[in-house]
Amino acid sequence: MSSVNFIRLEKKRLIMDFLIKHMRVILVFIIIIFVFCVGFGIYFSISKDNSQTAITINGTKISMQTFNLICTNYIKIYETTNNKLSKNDLNKIKMEIIQKLIQDEFFYHQSKYYMITVTDEELKTDLQNFEMFKSNNIFNIHKYYTFLNFIKMTPKQYESTRKKQIIINKTKYIILSSIKFWNYEFEKSIKQNSKLTKEYLINKKINLILNKLYSDTLKNSKIKLNTTIFK
User: Fold this and answer.
1) Whole-angstrom Cα distance, residue 173 to residue 152?
2) Neighbour count for residue 64 (Cβ, 10 Å)
3) How much is the pLDDT for 171?
4) Phi, psi angles (nearest 5°) of residue 111
5) CB–CB of 57/105 below 8 Å?
6) C-beta separation of 67 from 229 below 8 A
7) Do 25 and 74 touch, CB atoms closer than 8 A?
8) Average pLDDT of the segment spanning 136-152
9) Distance (Å, whole) CA 147 – CA 142
């Protein structure tokens, strides 16, 4: 296998690992909040009131309850590999969550250009593959409705937002798959540091591009943040 083909295959594997890693970190609670509409103009404001809304992105409100559920999930994952988190660590986690919400708004907006859709069959397969909805490896409708009762959503609401999340994931894969990691980039990098691996360099490039997308999206979004989430 040529080095070029190897790098392409390796990049594809790392992109999939990258997406899976992010879905694992946020787990199931993140999927109920992506009902985004896109706005324009540079605007970022701080809300000092102690309302029930944690963050508003282009007019879409994310409740404090939902935001806290995501934070709780993040914290549990971090604490499995780290010591007890400090207040500063917790605030960093919250900023990571906010960053991901804004990034995913960008991907959902971009999906319209690619005309990405999700069929009912795709949605059905997606739901049936959730381990939390299974009993003896078979989809359990009672577990499904128990979950819906817990998040206070109807099947129609949940399935609509789940479709949107699948669209976001598809768009992420298309955009990230288009990132080229050239042979000369690898050769140049290892000349500077022979210990660098393809995996590290590909992930570095992906993260740089994602950070640029985040920065651009932030400039073109209307965001209102409730600062009480950091107290």
Assistant:
1) 30
2) 17
3) 92
4) -60, -25
5) yes
6) yes
7) yes
8) 89
9) 9
**CA separation for the pair 185, 188 (Å, rounded):** 5
- Residue 32 per-residue DSSP state: G
Is the backbone of residue 171 left (phi > 0), alpha (psi -120 to 50) or beta?
alpha
| pLDDT tens by residue, 64-102 | 877 887 787 777 777 777 667 788 888 888 888 888 877
CA distances from 114 to 35, 38, 108, 177 (A): 18, 16, 10, 14
Residue 85's φ and ψ, nearest 5 degrees, are: -80, 140
User: Cβ(162)–Cβ(127) under 8 Å?
Assistant: yes
pTM over 0.70: no
* Residues forming beta bridges with residue 44, ordered by sequence position: 223
Backbone angles phi and psi of 72, in degrees to 5: -60, -40
What count of other Cβ atoms lies within 10 Å of the Cβ of residue 60?
17
Give the span between the Cα atoms of 198 and 179, in whole angstroms.
14
What is the DSSP pairing of strand 222-226 with strand 43-47? parallel
Q: Give CA–CA dist 57/35, Å, rounded.
A: 10
